[in-house]
Amino acid sequence: MSHRADPPERAPDASSTPPWVLREYAVIADGERGAVLDPDGRIVWLCAPRWHDDAVFSSLIGGPGHFTLRPADPWHVWGGYYEEGSLIRVSRWVTSGCLVECREALAMPARTDRLVLLRRMRAVRGEPRLRLTLDARPGFGIGRMQDPRRQDGVWSAGAEGLRMRLLGAPDAVWRPEEGLTGEFRLREGESHDLVLELSVTPRAEPLDADALWRATEREWQRAVPDCSRLIAPRDARHAYAVLRGLTSVSGGMVAAATTSLPERANSGRNYDYRFAWLRDQCYAGLAVAAHGPHPLLDDAVRFAAERLLEDGDGLHPAYTVDGDRVGAARSLRLPGYPGGTDHIGNDAGAQFQLDTFGEALQLFAAADAHDRLTEDAERAAAVAVDAVERQWQRPDAGLWELEERWWTHSRLSVVCGLRRMADVLPGSAGRRCGDLADTVLRETRRRCLRPDGRWRRAADDDGPEAALLVPIARGCESDDDGAATREYIESRLTEDGYLYRFEHPGKPLGEAEGAFLLCGFTMALAAHRLDDRLGAFRWFERTRAACGPSGLFAEEYDVRRRQLRGNLPQAFVHAVMLESAVRLAGVATVP
After folding, report:
1. Is the separation of the CB atoms in 43 and 13 below 8 Å?
2. C-alpha distances in angstroms, 453 versus 307, 370, 494?
3. Which of 469, 463, 462 is nearest to 518 (CA)?
4. What pLDDT does 95 receive?
5. CB of 18 within 8 A of CB of 36?
6. Residues facing residue 151 across a β-bridge
7. Predicted pLDDT of residue 75
8. Does residue 533 carry a pLDDT above 50?
9. How buried is 17 (Cβ within 10 angstroms: 0-12 exposed, 13-18 middle, 19+ buried)?
């Protein structure tokens, strides 16, 4: 073996290296946390031990801390791919004389108090040198690992509340300002493993790379179903893998792995998405239910039911994956990704969003279609119906989390949920849902339906609103109302085949914000529901193109610059992409 780690020349800290555009990043995740990789072999983002905890690698948003493994030869080009049906990533670099790969994953099944990061180098051609730098900086860069030790070839160190072990670099050098540094020489065909563990308490069990890889491969094979009957089957499986990678053992699914990646440069629109939005979770559960009774459906039902039973009328839009409250946004005082300023926490956690109740009811009805409606979920559905009865007249923040108004989409969402549950709940409970749905729809039509048959954005706003595509896609209104509304949205909110959320007064489409990818896939579903098969496929394929080389979708797409905007990977985009792949293939198992 020739993988001896030699001390390299002193290298600059990766936090001084300019970031890449968002489309070039990849993400690996295990359900409890996610790591962001750049094309040059740097892991530039990782929170430990869980999603909502502080980052130990934060150079993505201007902080220190990274884990770099890359060719020592600066003259190289990069590439990579995900192994199908998983978030196991294979990075590839071609130098003037070598081809080298690095297989990377967060080990599964995951634990909440411990993460294990696997990196397996392989010399495909030639005899490459690779450079290692491991600089873990807890607390978004405030802390440093202390008391480094090397025993039996394993490095260990610690900081307050976090312990670190690294297997595979026994000859690396610890430098106080850089962490561990070293170089690896590989012969052609040779492989070598690095295993990084970060845990809440010290661990004693050996770090067995082969065993960890085998367990991770088995878990992905078990977790992601076959999608061969869907349209775009590889992308559909990838979407499912993303959703699985973002879903905790608690059942909660984070909206994205990152925080503070700007939706628009220097606009103040950068948010922390490392939390579970109930609406997003319902979208994911509905997408999975359309395909089959897979475990992610049970996760969504369990998490939504627990939150409703605990909070009732006081349901919050977002929680940590443990079901705890989301704190208010506050600044980290880091430089931030270019165009953004760093924040953690999210003010949306304290909003009232009426449509969340409707989406939860739709989720429970879909679960019942697969005989997966638990007793807790049935009780939670009753709680949601009670909440809607008391709250439906109240202005809310709506799907886009704006000012509180009488949003049309919110009312139509609860109408759809109530109608679906009317077919599920027995006797008087079902009749009550149907009667309440009729009451809400009657008043919503009085306030929000125009004489020409299309829906207004809100009771006091006549403009176009892409959120109204959601109830059309769910079949909760008449085809006449849906067709007129869809036609108006398409005529006013489309540019170059992509769809925007709504109009910003005084600004043309594309200047105020990017195209909203959730809306593009929802338009495909709405067109399919209205029997416009050609339109459905056109919207699906155009929106599907708005991803980077890694196949990950962000929330928005800058059409003119062909760039991703916002945090990634955005769970609800992958969810609705998956549902579109199911329904357009004609194999949906629930209406």
Report:
1. no
2. 37, 35, 21
3. 469
4. 94
5. no
6. 154
7. 86
8. yes
9. middle
What's the pLDDT score for residue 12? Answer: 38
Q: Is the pLDDT of residue 208 over 70?
A: yes
Q: Distance between CA 269 and CA 266 in Å, rounded?
A: 8
3-class DSSP state for residue 250?
A: coil
* DSSP structural state of residue 17: S
- Total Cβ atoms within 10 A of residue 174: 16
* b/e burial code for range 248-262 (CB count within 10 A of at least 16 → b): bebbbbbbbbbbbbb
Angle, CA 36 vertex, CA 34 and CA 38 arms, to 5°: 165
pTM for the predicted model, two decimal places: 0.96
Whole-number Å distance between alpha carbons of 400 and 379: 28
Give the tokens for residue 439. Answer: 């009451």
C-alpha span between 139 and 54 (Å, rounded): 5
Angle at 589 between CA 86 and CA 435, to 5 degrees: 125
Tokens, residue 584: 């357009």
**Number of other residues whose CB lies within 10 A of the CB of residue 460:** 10
Which positions ≥6 away from 544 have C-beta within 8 Å? 232, 235, 577
Residue 44 contacts residue 19 (beta carbons within 8 Å): yes
Task: Tell me how far apart the alpha carbons of residues 92 and 127 are, in angstroms, rounded to a whole number.
Answer: 14
Q: In whole angstroms, what is the distance from residue 471 CA to residue 541 CA?
A: 22
Q: CA of 206: how far to CAs of 153, 268, 552, in Å? A: 11, 46, 34
The Cα–Cα gap between 344 and 328 comes to 8
Triad 43, 49, 54: Cα angle to 5°: 75
Q: How many CA atoms are closer than 13 Å to the CA of 125, on its beta-carbon side?
A: 8
Q: Are the beta carbons of 412 and 477 closer than 8 angstroms? A: yes
Q: Please state, in angstroms and rounded to a whole number, the distance separating the CA atoms of residues 103 and 118.
A: 8
Q: Please tell me what DSSP assigns to residue 23.
A: G
d(CA 357, CA 410): 9
Tokens of 424: 């599920």
In degrees, to the nearest 5, what angle opens at C-alpha 461 toward C-alphas 457 and 467? 15
Q: What is the mean pLDDT of the chain?
A: 94
Burial grade of 85 (CB within 10 A; 0-12, 13-18, 19 or more): buried
Q: Is the dihedral of CA 23, 296, 199, 330 positive or negative?
A: positive
Reading the block at residue 106, the tokens are: 């967060």
- Reported residue count of the chain is 591
Torsion-angle region of 96 (φ positive above 0: left; ψ -120 to 50: alpha; else: beta): alpha
How many Cα atoms occupy the beta-carbon half-sphere of 290 within 13 Å?
30
Residues linked to residue 410 through DSSP beta bridges, in sequence order: none
The per-residue pLDDT for range 274-326, each reduced to its tens digit, is 999 999 999 999 999 999 999 999 999 999 999 999 999 999 999 999 999 99
Tokens representing 458?
């809100």
Torsion of Cα atoms, 343 then 29 then 514 then 272, to 10°: -20
